[in-house]
Amino acid sequence: MALAIGLVIGGGGVGAVWALNGDDGGAGSAVDARAACGALDRFHESDYEAGERPTSEIALNRWSAAFALSESAAARDAAYKPLADALRSSKGRYVADAEFSAKVKEDLAQARRICSHI
Cys-Cys link to 64, which of 10, 33, 86, 87 (CB 3.0-4.6 A)? Predict the structure, then answer.
């Protein structure tokens, strides 16, 4: 349930980020992509799975922030679409599986590999 709430909040965050960024010729996209990677770097599945507040809440917020920022970056610059796709897939698979399955972890690993080149 908390993840579903986080997805809704994250979706709202995407809209807010788009509205605040304006048309910046793509420079904001790189900033958003790096910020997404920073949030992902600080996200650890084990913290979310611990189920202890505030640890799990912080983890959920970091994952949601990474997702929202990657979507914002990809909306302006297609070069960041693979990052957004990997994070979107990780969220969708988590909702479907209700756990950090091997597929969810692979999506997160893919997003982290992409981040290593940003």
Answer: 10
